[in-house]
Amino acid sequence: MRKGLILNIISNxxxxxxxxxxxxxxxxxxxxxxxxVVGTIITVLDFEYMFTSNGARQSLSxxxxxxxxxxxxxxxxxxxxxxxxxxxxxxxxxxxxxLFGTVFNDDSLDFYFKLAAFxxxxxxxxxxxxxxxDGLQRFQYSAFLSTFYPIVKLGVIPLIMFVFPHDPVMxxxxxxxxxxxxxxxxxxxxxAPVWPQxxxxxxxxxxxxxxxxxxxxxxxxxxxxxxVLSADTLVVKSVVSPASMAGYYxxxxxxxxxxxxxxxAFAVIILPVVSGLVAKGDLRQAGQKAQSLVLxxxxxxxxxxxxxxxxxxxxxxxxxxxxxxxxxxxxxxLAFSSFFMGMTVVFNMVLNAEKDTHFSDMLSIxxxxxxxxxxxxxxxxxxxxxIAAASMVCTFITMTLSYIExxxxxMDVMTPKTWAVISINVVIWVVLFLIGRVVSVQNxxxxxxxxxxxxxxxxxxxxxxxxxxxxxxxxxKGGK
Length: 480
Fold this sequence. Notes:
Structural class: mainly alpha
Transmembrane segments: 5-26, 32-53, 74-99, 111-132, 144-164, 176-195, 215-240, 260-279, 291-312, 324-351, 363-381, 387-406, 418-439, 445-468
Order of helices and strands: HHHHHHHHHHHHHHHHHHHH
InterPro entries: MATE_fam, Poly_Biosynth_Transport
Subcellular location: Cell membrane
Oligomer: single chain
Pfam families: MatE
Organism: Bifidobacterium aerophilum
């Protein structure tokens, strides 16, 4: 488990560093309005990726790791369900393209959404391979593919520079699709040696209805997560004026989602590990694994949200342009919003390890009903700061409710050490925020260096105070 977690964190680090480089180029070489168009396309794709990615991946991971079913049978039936979902999104993007242009007040989106219709197809196949490797607890292979893809995706930049200099949106879409196809070919090659073994594992055939329920349940939950994290950008594009605000908000969201992407590594690991232990009837060990991962999540990922939130003004100014400072209060909220949603996902993966998805389904339904109206009202009357604050409040509520349900059904995964970590981070936020009111950093690389110094000093405090120890980290075994 420890090795798999580290590798998946690295892969997610590469993923968002790659994204930052792409956004850095786009934000610096296009107008704020044009960057807003790119942000709208990417946001919709992220929304669809959440649906086509996490449902199949997590369902495969849970069903394979249980050791109960024939793996080949699970894969074939999950692929059938995934094909139906992908076909739905293809139709929505391709045939509904004119409607997107009307909703977002931009007729140029018509062509781009037709082109985007092909991206969920490649993504749907890509995540199938990740789910198979996760279920077999071959975390190093899924981490490798997750690292390889964003590196190849950087080809977007030369594509825009040399092939599509006057159409950056097309450059982004062609680059994303090409990178996905290359990764799929590599993934199939990596699975080839173990495919004969998969046909011999497990004896029971899984029902197609059970597969569909698992995929759709996970997908529905991640739609909720994606909606809360992404719908605000679309609402800003539709409601807030001037158009440049969408670009500024996209810049804030780019940094705000950092911790969410990192916490996906925890969600990927915690589901098959806890599910496997639950299937064996070892609930005590399953709870201890969950406690360890939650402590590490708060200990090593939460401070990133804290630092970004406290220094949002300098971060946006040095990374983009001075005018992006208008989105600093929004980023301060979004940094926490993404972390809270990431922990919501982690807690629900613990709950879903038992194959009881009732709570997650209800949480998703209520969130889907309430979030959009809250975002629209917030944006209309308070602009980008108000909608970001609304996002933070909503995700805090979903995280808290999920934690309470885990404690009720299994055990308290928030240990005294975890609460101590949270207290330390509160102090760090206050100190950095007050310093930021007096001192301003004008260079991004200097700011990054300050981040590194603060982070490693903080980690040193955790070890000196014995909140986290080497022995604890070594105890996180299991998986590959």
